[in-house]
């Protein structure tokens, strides 16, 4: 027996597991320290009332012989696929059919798995910095080449730097890729992509026969009416783009688990193979459907009350984002993001490395954030804070940072 050699190439542990371990060690050594966590993008506000009632009702149904449900349909219940197609897409003028939406138990799972339906030698382009799951899952699949520890890059990955100079929006890839991962509003920088920027990528992907994997997990945080919420608002996206949707950040489902992936029928590989069929095939073999009660909770997000209640939740987190942005500016930091996204991206002071700043912040302010370099080489000298904490903790964290 031999372990999968691709896994052996992965440097260190997963970013957020690594941070959790460091924080645990610090807490053990400093039991009196009252640590405030603004690191991983995990929500803190309770589920909204519409979701809670739907959960209760669905649990009651499961306790009755007539309404009990076993395995969910592997592609998702029609009631949820329809609600999403209507409200997330058709209401925005996007031409997406109910059966093009595949329900799953989380966008992290889908963003890691989607690469499976592409050729093992596909070339992958990613923004730099990047949500680590996109790169790690391609490393596990063996298509990323060798790792260079000095530059923190993989030889077969095409990096698209997102820097202050380009407003954290990438230029087209320098070499022709097969897959292009885009996440907007962006994790980690909190930047958004304009309609023109996305059109540039869609036109390019259609021209070179590449597929865009568009992660829209943070779309609920867009406040600027000109910024697209879905890649399908862009002309030509149906023939080149897959979209990932999540219930985690808009409706607080990080502990419930629910998401969807959109694969239009018009999306074909260079030989005319429909990717929709491949993703359905993959679901059939590897997945038994998100729980009925959770899909009913997801449906409740689309009710009139649900929509109003999640808007209030998002607004509360955006109030935190304002506190962080304003406070850091007053403390003299260079900051961005936090206006159309729940992440604030700050430049570390005096050229400190991202990890040195992590240690300093933990030690002197007892605040946890995420080192920018953990997201890729262009994240070095940057740091991410999330707006997902409680309001009180956010205020206290910023007061402590100001005193550093
Ligand atoms: C993050 O902190 O980047 C996110 O919470 C990760 C995730 O959604 O899996």
Query: In DSSP terms, counting alpha (H) and pi (I) runs of 4 or more, how many helices?
Result: 13
Bound molecules: D-malate
Q: Would you state the CATH class of the largest domain?
A: Alpha Beta
Count all strands and give the number.
15
- CATH architecture descriptor of the largest domain: 3-Layer(aba) Sandwich
**CATH fold topology of the largest domain:** Aspartate Aminotransferase, domain 2
CATH superfamily of the largest domain: Type I PLP-dependent aspartate aminotransferase-like (Major domain)
Structural class: alpha/beta
Helix content: 25-40%
Q: What is the approximate shape?
A: globular
Portion in beta strands: 5-15%
Q: Any idea how many domains?
A: 2
Q: Which strand order do you get reading across the main beta sheet?
A: 2-10-9-8-7-3-6
Tell me, rounded to a whole number, the average pLDDT. 97
The whole-angstrom Rg is 21 Å
Largest sheet: 7 strands, mixed
- What distance lies between the first and last C-alpha atoms, to the nearest angstrom? 52 Å
Q: Which sequence of SSEs, written as H and E, runs from N to C?
A: HHEHHEHEHEEEEHEEHEHHHEEHEEEH
């Amino acid at each position: 027996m031999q372990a999968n050699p691709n896994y052996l190439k992965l440097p260190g542990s997963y970013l957020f597991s690594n941070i959790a371990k460091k924080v645990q060690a610090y807490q053990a050594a400093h039991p009196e320290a009252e640590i405030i966590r603004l690191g991983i993008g995990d929500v803190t506000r309770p589920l909204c009332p519409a979701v809670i009632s739907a959960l209760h009702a669905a649990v009651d149904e499961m306790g009755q012989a007539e309404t009990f449900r076993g395995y969910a349909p592997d592609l998702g219940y029609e009631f949820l696929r329809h609600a999403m197609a209507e409200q997330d897409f058709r209401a925005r003028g996007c031409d997406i059919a109910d059966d093009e939406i595949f329900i799953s138990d989380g966008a992290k799972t889908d963003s890691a798995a989607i690469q499976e339906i592409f050729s093992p030698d596909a070339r992958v382009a990613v923004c730099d910095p990047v949500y680590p799951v996109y790169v790690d899952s391609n490393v596990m699949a063996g298509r990323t080449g060798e790792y260079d520890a000095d530059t923190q890059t993989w030889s077969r990955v095409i990096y698209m730097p997102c820097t202050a100079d380009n407003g954290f929006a990438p230029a087209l890839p320098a070499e022709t890729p097969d897959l292009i991962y885009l996440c907007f509003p962006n994790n980690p920088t909190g930047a958004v992509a304009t309609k023109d920027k996305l059109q540039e990528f869609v036109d390019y992907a259609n021209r070179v026969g590449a597929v865009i994997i568009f992660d829209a997990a943070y779309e609920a945080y867009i406040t600027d009416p000109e910024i697209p919420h879905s890649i399908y608002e862009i002309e030509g996206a149906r023939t080149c783009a897959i979209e990932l949707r999540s219930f985690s950040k808009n409706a607080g489902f990080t502990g419930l688990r629910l998401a969807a992936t959109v694969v239009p029928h018009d999306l074909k590989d260079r030989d005319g193979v429909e990717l929709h069929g491949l993703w359905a095939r993959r679901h059939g073999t590897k997945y038994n459907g998100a729980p009925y009660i959770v899909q009913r909770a997801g449906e409740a997000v689309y009710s009139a009350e649900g929509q109003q209640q999640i808007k209030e939740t998002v607004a509360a987190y955006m109030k935190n984002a304002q506190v962080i942005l304003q406070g850091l500016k007053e403390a003299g930091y260079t900051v961005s993001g936090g206006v159309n996204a729940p992440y604030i991206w700050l430049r570390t002071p005096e050229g400190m490395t991202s990890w040195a700043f992590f240690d300093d912040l933990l030690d002197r302010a007892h605040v946890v954030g995420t080192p920018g370099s953990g997201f890729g080489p262009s994240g070095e000298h940057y740091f991410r804070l999330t707006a997902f904490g409680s309001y009180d903790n956010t205020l206290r964290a910023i007061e402590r940072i100001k005193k550093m």
